[in-house]
């Protein structure tokens, strides 16, 4: 007995009408949702739980690192030069001063100033931060900070767990798999939910049906919870992909080709930039009348006195928030940078490049003039990190993370509750129903997504190979069964 390559329901009327084709979209969605949930579920579970934990870290940081974050004095702040000098004395002169990376002045009364140093023993985007009381110059602590967010050790540890399980680039593959498949699981689940709604099986779809027996209660919990979380899951997937190793690089390239990239601040200086009094354009060469102290001190790195002068020049242009980072030139022929780092609403991330010799503004970027795509990217990242709307944003992320983790557990529970009668349907019975036109469209769509998200594409091929293996084993098993 041969297995037909394209089964149908074979409901042929006595009049000889052609057989009705079997439905294909719903079985295909079920199979896609099942495979993705089965194999990618553990990655999504870890990402969801670690993301939920990350949402709580800003409040935990304020408690754990209160000594470093809170100034002991309430007097007027000392000049930045004196605060930096105090940090240098604590950190050590010479090498430490020469490795000065950035300074973040106290953003508000009662907060401390961060003087940040390069340290070859730290990882990428990590700095050694010395916390200084701005009113007295007293050093209150010494911690490792990470990234633009200035994450302290606890938040950084959870962040690295969420990003890559503390396994480096190899570990980042887990989070990329989770982000690349979360949207597929969410959309296929929404399709199954919509199909049930259309067929009239609406009880338990919007809220759990606690009276349903056994497995159907779990199905109701999974379906109703998934419906209310689907938009959040899609948003987390989209923003998470932008940070991924391979897919994120392709998204950045696509944005560049479409002209949607975030404007970059130029820090290169030319001879003309050093000529005092020259101006060119609306956003460049703003002249500051008072000249600063020498930009550098021989053998000792950036001159602390220049930080005050550069910040003052930036304030005259477009720097008007308390949360600011000042970076000295990374190399000879480069400008100083003063950048707003406020990620809460309203977003303030303006930046300005300043020639430390003349205090002329050589370039500037203003968030108000960013392309819409760049603004959406900034907002999406800040929402994903829970910084845009403060505590409310964090609570939403906490609920989303715990909710998605619950969906994964419920999915495995449904699978367990179907044992021992549960079997994987023969792939030929599912894929064989798909019309050829739809197969071509789906194949082209899969190739396009796979090119943009390579890890998604390779894992999809792995699913298809597994599906083919299931089909072969199923046919062999059927061939060994004795005839009735």
From TrEMBL:
Ranges annotated as spanning the membrane: 34-56, 178-198, 219-243, 395-415, 436-452
Protein keywords: Membrane, Transmembrane, Transmembrane helix
Segments of this protein annotated with the region Disordered: 1-22, 269-307
One of the Pfam families matching this protein, by short name: PepSY_TM
Signal peptide residues on this chain, from the entry's feature table: none
PANTHER family: IRON-REGULATED INNER MEMBRANE PROTEIN-RELATED, PEPSY DOMAIN-CONTAINING PROTEIN
Name of the protein in question: Membrane protein
Species of provenance: Sediminivirga luteola
